[in-house]
Amino acid sequence: MTGPLEKVSTSKAFAGELNKYKFKSAALGGLDAHFNLFLPYLKSGQKAPLLVYLAGLTCTEDNGAQKGGFFGAASAQGIAILFPDTSPRGAGVPGEEDDWDFGTGAGFYINATKPEYSKHYNMYDHITVELPKVLEAEKLPIDLTRQSIFGHSMGGHGALVLYLSSKSKQYRSASAFAPITNPSKCPWGEKAFKGYLAGGLQEGADRYDATELIAKSSDPLHILIDYGTGDKFYQQGQLLPENFLKAARAAGYDEVQIRVRSQPEYDHSYYFISTFAADHVHFHANFLKA
Fold this sequence. Notes:
By secondary structure, the chain is α/β, with parallel strands linked by helices. It has helices at about 65, 70-75, 115-120, 125-135, 155-165, 185-195, 200-210, 210-215, 230-235, 240-250, 270-290; strands spanning about 5-15, 15-25, 30-40, 50-55, 80-85, 140-150, 175, 225-230, 260-265. The chain has 11 helices and 9 strands.
């Protein structure tokens, strides 16, 4: 059972508020979960559409809020932004603290099916089911019928996968900064899928690989992806945006529905993200405010 929401802190930003909350998460096996929520200034009775930001490996709910540069554009557009954590914290599973790219800080936004991880590592349900219910129960001024999602690196993978696979078309649009787009074909994804999933790589490819999912999709889609050619992880073959783009075009999606932009010399950092942050918020505003 999910516990009550507790406000930890609040800070004014761009005429709105950034609030940090925590609660006992049923999806994460009863552990404390933290998230940040930016609420723009709203007139009485108004509700803001919601943009969900998923952060990358080693991050917490704070990285995107502190360094993403999203609040100015979000405030101007009247959009709320939710910043969840990237994994459960303190699950006590042997080995979860051994590597930076697996376990704590690296939940990969999937529901684990290996017994040792399945109690706590359910970030997919935490994001798509639990957090919306928590926000609704708190009666915050958010319109949950208007949601979109974006993210960075592992979080970009999460944003694309949740957008392409969530029930009832939960999200109106998705975007990503330097996403892991074909995780069943790269070292980070292979490690995560083999570690968390009883069905290993095949289960991961079938359920949590954006390139595999886009190849089977026929729904109308709205996706924007940016990556930098100076990104060492792109150069090492961790991101594989060309694979995603090839699968999308083969499935019949054109440049209007799915746009993948190569940004010369930009790297994997939040300097890159903040450069294109407003672009992504404005992209989502087209669909959140339609």
